[in-house]
Amino acid sequence: MIKTIDPNMSENTTLAKANDQWINLDHPALRGVIHQHQFERLGSFPFVSQSVDVLSKHSSGINVMFETDSPIIKVKATLLGAAYMAHMSATGTIGFDLYVFLHQKWVFLSTTKVNASQYEVTLLEGVAKKKRTYRLYFPLYQRVLEASLGISSNATFEFIKPLQEKIVIYGTSISQGGCASRPGLSYGAILDRRFPYEVINLGFSGSAHMEDAILDILASIPKKWLILEMEANNDLTIHEKINTFLSRIPDEHVILISHFPLSMALLKPEVKSRLIRNRKAQQDASKNIIFVDGNKMLKRFGYEETVDGVHLNDIGFYAVANYLERIMKHHEP
Questions:
Q1: Residues 191, 249: one domain?
Q2: What percent of the chain lies above the pLDDT cut of 90?
């Protein structure tokens, strides 16, 4: 069995110790939520659709910053279910990622290697007792019912909730994070570490249908940037809907991304022509905002940037984040 041959392939579950102290993460310091209601992205916002109602309870993009001198950090979670997709890892679907701020940048430390609806995992242990700043990212594709952080009993702990402007992302499964190998590698999470802004991830898998209720939600959030990525969920209708949708979006600091590369377009003329038509419709509608050709964002990777021909892998997410970072820094005052 591989876990016997290579222990690094084993789950990293652990057992609680009597001297652990546990901090409930359902706290106002949570980042990536609008109106906080447990670990839900939209909280008490009005109904958009049945699918958005379900997916908004997935904790994609939610994270929390904290400062502690604990030599051990654990996470204990209860989720609605275990991982359930054939093309997305359990670490990305239901896992938590731990980062530390060192030498003026965020450094990845560890993730939860487990596939269960309830688990307790040690993310860090055996380090010197020194005050450090950490960030914990929540699962991309599951609802978190309970989550707590475990530290040693004599350690100090403080949540960090800096006042900062927001980047809001509205889009499809790709924006939600499908299929990053772990939560810290969605393009929204990468941007979250590159800018002094709080990222609100409103990516809804298969459900970015540009409803009026979504426009109301977007209008209600004070933001520095708005990133839109919607074509894949409206591929037959976006040329009809995009002008009306953008007419209700404020012009300043808005990026609209068209469809990312599809290798099937190389073999199916109808797919290629639809992508060309949709790209032109979005470009024509984007006179007062920044239009980005999604095909160009990933063109140099030779169609290796997806898991299944559609959803991005880590190469794809990293490239998208890099591309967006350059644009955003170029256009900021």
A1: yes
A2: 86
Whole-number Å distance between alpha carbons of 222 and 98: 28
Structure tokens given for 101:
């701020």
pLDDT tens profile 27-62: 999 999 998 889 999 987 778 999 999 999 999 999
Helix, strand or coil, per DSSP, at residue 137: strand
Do 156 and 203 have their domain in common? Answer: no
Q: How far apart are CA 269 and CA 288, in angstroms?
A: 31
Point out which residues pair with 228 in neighbouring strands: 170, 256
Query: Number of structural domains, the chain?
Result: 2
Task: Name the residue type at position 147.
Answer: A
Q: What is the pLDDT of residues 232-242, one digit of tens each?
A: 999 999 999 99
Boundary residue ending a domain (160, 176, 207): 160
Q: Which domain holds residue 292?
A: 166-331
The Cβ of residue 28 has, within 10 Å, a number of other Cβ atoms equal to 8
Using DSSP bridges, classify how beta strands 166-171 and 225-229 pair: parallel, antiparallel or unpaired. Answer: parallel
d(CA 249, CA 139) in angstroms, rounded, equals: 29
18 pLDDT above the threshold of 60: no
- Is pTM beyond 0.90? Reply is yes
Pairing of strands 198-203, 166-171: parallel
List of residues 6+ apart from 20 with CB closer than 8 A: 74, 150, 151, 152, 153
Please indicate, yes or no, whether residues 137 and 173 belong to a single structural domain of this protein.
Answer: no
Based on its alpha-carbon atoms, the radius of gyration of the chain, rounded to whole angstroms, reads 20
- Residue (of 255, 234, 251, 231) closest to 320 by Cα position: 255
